[in-house]
Amino acid sequence: MNSAQNLFPFDGKLPGPKLLRSTLTSPFGRKVRIAMDVLGLSGRIDVQPADTRDQSDTLRQQNPLGKIPCLILEDGSILYDSRVIIEFLDRWSGQNRLIPEAVDERARILTRATLADGIADAALLMVYEGRFRDPSQISEIWLDHQRGKISRALDAMQTALPDPRKTDVVSISLACALGYLDWRQPVEWRQTYPVIVDWLDEFAAAEAAFGRTERPAEIPA
């Protein structure tokens, strides 16, 4: 039995994906929506908005952490964390194209995806610092801490960028993190990392799902 079978022993007879709880602005929700598109699953999975700040939102019963994205299966089972959801969809669909099956390669790829996700995590924390704190309480020390994470991660990513013509969990994660940086602008990254700018342009041209999952223009910053 290979590693993927150990992790996800689905044979197509067990419950499939039914409902995704997310928003159209979450970089992590966008990752899953891109995966759904690439795997040809968008038409069979409903996407239902979730408000992480609303105490009455059923999201808090579906995921006790109250975080998105959250995937509900046909039997009511629930998966959360974008990487877990993407791996489930990849294996369940039988395509195995977003995350490799071999243990060593899987670990390497998921490590790179985690690094890319860390960029989005740090950017979110910077946005939340301004959103949830009184201006007099905003900590520049905290913001600098998050900026450091982003710059170090971008430095590391640009030494070994994924193939922009290949859509996998690393390229999806990096593209969504960069898309979030472009929208929220917690840091100015484009002038410092022209190689990564070129990579994003190439990925966007090669993968139509990136454009199809972009935040609607009517949603303000």
UniProtKB/TrEMBL annotation:
UniProt-listed SUPFAM superfamilies: GST C-terminal domain-like (SSF47616), Thioredoxin-like (SSF52833)
Annotated Gene3D superfamilies: 1.20.1050.10, Glutaredoxin
InterPro entries hit by this protein: Glutathione-S-Trfase_C_sf, Glutathione_S-Trfase_N, Thioredoxin-like_sf
Boundaries of every GST N-terminal domain copy: 16-97
Name of the protein this chain belongs to: Glutathione S-transferase family protein
Native source organism of the sequence: Thalassospira povalilytica
